[in-house]
User: Which sequence fits this backbone?
């Protein structure tokens, strides 16, 4: 049975708190696992969340500030210690290659796993599989930063009333799905387009074109909301978003489920993030993330 869910490993920004670990997010997408922005303590949070090194197929780093990348060294070494049997691919800004190299080889260990480096240096597609296309978009932060978007290819939804009208039943249903035609009956006549699911991951950034492009029509959007709206100037100065700005992006983009995260340690009450997101007009599903939350990707429309 396929599983599509977000496992939240950490939700703090630069400074962790007693209740919030540094960043870390695992997207389970059918049989694959994509780890985003492993900050310090990611290995321990993986243990607490029931995530194994064998679950990882890709690692996506938005940028090389410590709270988004210092856990890389431990995660990479754990992948090798556990002798993960499949290839793992790492994506990150090419401009931060020196930081990736230092983290990958921070200490001595035995390399047993093929870790493929596939950095981003422009907007565009990073990987295309039968299950999804992964693309990167540049964001606006004091250091180069990229957000990531995963898009499932569109499929077809079979329509029982049309199948019955054309007399297609039993094994012939599977045949017309595979071959696109059964005699004079085409797949288009007995089905409709089933839109593929969309997921986006947007971390440290000001409002910019890349944010809106990543969020467009997403089923699940994970986005930073480091500050509350009353600190909008501070957010802009440091290259971040407020709760209201993040929710406004989701509102305008038609996002179905919004996940707010990456909270400054200055705020003790997460309820205010929800209040400001709703005040900005976002009416979809909303999660103010907590460590170890599990957020399912919404069912297809």
Assistant:
């Amino acid at each position: 049975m396929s599983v599509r869910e977000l496992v939240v490993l950490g939700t703090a920004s630069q400074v962790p708190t007693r209740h919030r670990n540094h960043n870390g997010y695992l997207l389970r997408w059918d049989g694959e696992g994509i780890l985003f922005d492993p900050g310090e303590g990611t290995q321990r949070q993986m243990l607490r969340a029931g995530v194994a090194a064998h679950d990882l197929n890709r690692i996506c780093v938005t940028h090389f500030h410590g709270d988004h990348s210092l856990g890389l060294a431990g995660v990479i070494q754990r992948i090798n210690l556990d002798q993960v049997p499949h290839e793992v691919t790492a994506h990150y800004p090419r401009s931060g290659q020196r930081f990736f190299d230092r983290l990958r080889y921070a200490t001595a260990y035995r390399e047993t796993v093929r870790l493929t480096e596939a950095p981003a240096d422009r907007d565009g597609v990073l990987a295309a599989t039968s299950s999804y296309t992964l693309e990167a978009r540049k964001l606006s932060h004091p250091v180069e930063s990229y957000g990531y978007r995963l898009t499932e290819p569109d499929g077809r939804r079979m329509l029982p009333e049309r199948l019955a009208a054309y007399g297609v039943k039993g094994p012939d249903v599977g045949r017309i799905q595979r071959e696109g035609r059964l005699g004079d009956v085409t797949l288009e006549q007995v089905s409709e387009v089933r839109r593929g699911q969309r997921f986006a991951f947007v971390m440290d950034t000001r409002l910019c074109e890349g944010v809106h492009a990543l969020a467009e029509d997403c089923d699940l959007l994970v986005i930073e909301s480091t500050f509350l709206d009353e600190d909008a100037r501070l957010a802009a100065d440091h290259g971040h978003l407020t709760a209201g700005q993040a929710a406004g992006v989701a509102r305008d983009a038609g996002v179905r489920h919004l996940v707010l995260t990456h909270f400054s340690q200055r705020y003790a009450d997460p309820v205010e993030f929800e209040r400001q997101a709703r005040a900005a007009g976002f009416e979809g599903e909303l999660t103010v993330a907590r460590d170890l939350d599990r957020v399912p990707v919404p069912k297809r429309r």
